[in-house]
Amino acid sequence: MKVLSVVGARPQFVKLAPIAHALAPAHEHVVVHTGQHYDELMSDVFFRDLGIAAPDVNLAVGSGAHGAQTAAMLAGLEPIFEQHRPDWVLVYGDTNSTLAAAVAAVKLHLPLAHLEAGLRSFNRRMPEEHNRVLTDHAADLCLAPTAVAMGHLADEGLADRAVLVGDVMTDVLYQVRDRVRAAPPALPWEGPTGVVATIHRAENTDDPKRLRAIVDALAELDRPVRLLAHPRLLAVAAREGIALDRGAVTATAPLPYPDLIAAVLSSSGVVTDSGGLQKEAYLLRRMCTTVRTETEWVETVDAGWNVIAGDRLDELAALVARPIAPEPTDNPYGDGRAAQAVVDTLAERIAR
Ligand code: UD1
Fold first, then answer.
1. Which of 127, 171, 241, 315 is the most exposed place for a label (fewest CB within 10 A)?
2. Predicted local confidence at residue 108, as pLDDT
């Protein structure tokens, strides 16, 4: 079987790692990087630390407005798909890279599989939500991480294309957690970690008033806040004159994946608008406070390990200080072997 993966942004490199390992050596795997994320710390370190071979192709599309960025990817991907004609084009998650690859694949009648299918925030202001919905409906195979995601796919009439495989980010997390526990990396700050924070979503960074209020609330927390600053956050903060390093907050560069896991393990909790980090906090049993109005990973909230802060920024200190939740009784994200289930499903469907 020949699989062509398209990735472009940081969380996709994490998802690619277990898939690349599960495909090798039995299957042929072509990896195309769109270049949506290009900084060393947003891209290269993930390939290095997670043991993924360098991409076969890098389109180096870079940053831009949604339309220009997605269009450049679409134009760049088409000839590569034509050249390789894989058995499956595999796309990951919800970024502009995902959407571009999905559109390019279906127009060339190439079988399309969507990993992390069926996630919904039901927030139509999020660019990611449109990327998810459009990709799921274009896909021939929707590889769902959770039972809840399977339910959303069924609600949209996609049940007969949907397969529950589990969450591949859980595969990586468990492996890296064990490595990090055995040999913890040094973290880039003095003293206790306190809270690990990340803020990068458009809904929090596009409006400077909202961003300023979030940083104000973080600065007033009663414990150190290690803010791992995404380039989008840094760019808006610089443009709008919003100081990040103040009060409780120390801003640092984004961390490589093993260091991020070590940071969460050494923390008392997480404050974030990232999807992946909410789930990582849950799996590492750290309390998460989500600076959004909803989440796709509802299992973390139902289990009591995640709370949606929404507009309650004035309550952030109390939310962060809440006691830890009871140990979960189930395992909604699977057993850490989702990538093998993905490869088995792809191979079985191609045989049909
Ligand atoms: C993208 C995804 C989002 C995902 C996130 C993970 C879309 C619509 N959004 O958001 O779903 O959670 O990636 O990080 O695809 N930049 C750099 N260096 C980089 C990458 C980005 O400086 O390596 C800066 C650029 O100024 C760019 C901005 O960050 O304009 C935003 O990058 P972009 O690719 O638009 O999306 P993200 O916010 O990272």
1. 241
2. 98
Could you tell me which of 91, 280, 290 has the C-alpha nearest to residue 203? Answer: 290
318 C-alpha to ligand 1 centroid (Å): 30
Which letter, b or e, does each residue of 264-303 get, where b requires 16 or more Cβ atoms within 10 Å of its Cβ?
bbbbbbbbbbbbbbbbbbbbbebbbbbbbeebbbbbbbeb
β-strand pairing of 88-92 with 112-115: parallel
Residue 290 near residue 217, CB atoms below 8 Å: no
Neighbours of 243 (CB within 10 A): 12
H/E run at residue 270: strand 269-272
Considering only CA atoms, which of 267, 278, 281 is closest in space to residue 184? Answer: 267
Burial classification of residue 112, based on how many CB atoms lie within 10 Å of its CB (0-12 exposed, 13-18 middle, 19 or more buried) = buried
Report the atom number in ligand 1 closest to the C-alpha of 11.
Answer: 6
pTM of the model: 0.96
Residue 229 has pLDDT above 90, yes or no: yes
Strand pairing partners for 226?
Answer: 196, 250
Kindly compute the dihedral angle of the four CA atoms of residues 174, 177, 179, 182, in this order, to the nearest 10 degrees.
-130
Q: Whose Cα sits closest to atom 29 in ligand 1? A: 232
pLDDT tens track for 138-188: 999 999 999 999 999 999 999 999 999 999 999 999 999 999 999 999 999
**CA 48–ligand 1 middle distance (angstroms):** 20
Unique residue bearing structure tokens 């998802």: 15
Label residue 351 by pLDDT band (50, 70, 90).
Answer: low
